[in-house]
């Protein structure tokens, strides 16, 4: 079996990123590190892949960004932040939406061959696929997914703010809360669910969940129909994103349910429509996620940093009238 860049990194006692930089721009690493990397590569008879050579030569002048989907305001805001910085840096941007296709791994590999580096958002492909790209020397940054060993990561804080949201709902008079979302669709949603459940247990809220097929306004409408068929509504519904919450509130209103008199509703993201709907939500720095990822990727491509970096951006609970205190 042919040796990989991971084998060289392990033998030399350095990171994959350091091996990539040593081969691409030897002048930016120390003499001793360069000696160890070259010795390990010679010993293992390591030859960079064609993709790795293309990246080392920086033929493209373009960055790639990969999304699971491009519908809805969340992804649009991340793209705006990413493109703003990429433009300042003189980089073109190629965008790929995988839409859950079975061939997503092959699609991303092909895109990597046309770019100097990639930003990958969410669970578009497996950790194994990302590690394979990293082993080929592809500069990588992940966004909104658990960190992958040796790969830069940018994410927004979820657990602590979801915990605070549970406390707010209890303070607003709720005794029960339903979490509306689908943790299988997003690592962020998994963390929000965990934080809300932990906070609910801490403050004595009865907590349950309702999983939806789609994380959009239609999913919220379907959830409203289901909840209105139950013997009683919960005191509060904490939605995994604003799109769900907005769809839910519209469908509840059509059924004569008044928010917040009959049920408290919260979202997550703080998209523009949430502000007009007076929706209590959690503000994410969406454009900052994209902008930070673009800067991290440029650092990797330019060889300004050898070790992987993990950045967690803060989020903020924004209280509006959809969770106003209930009268008892």
From TrEMBL:
Annotated TM spans: none
Keyword DNA-binding included in the entry's annotation: yes
Protein origin, superkingdom: Bacteria
PROSITE patterns recorded: HTH_LACI_1, HTH_LACI_2
A Pfam family this chain is assigned to: LacI
Gene3D superfamilies from the UniProt entry: 3.40.50.2300, lambda repressor-like DNA-binding domains (1.10.260.40)
Domain HTH lacI-type per the UniProt entry, residue ranges: 3-57
InterPro entries in the cross-refs: HTH_LacI (IPR000843), LacI/GalR-like_sensor (IPR046335), Lambda_DNA-bd_dom_sf (IPR010982), Peripla_BP_I (IPR028082)
Molecular function GO labels: DNA binding
Keywords from the UniProt entry: DNA-binding, Transcription, Transcription regulation
Record has Transcription regulation as a keyword: yes
Full protein name: LacI family DNA-binding transcriptional regulator
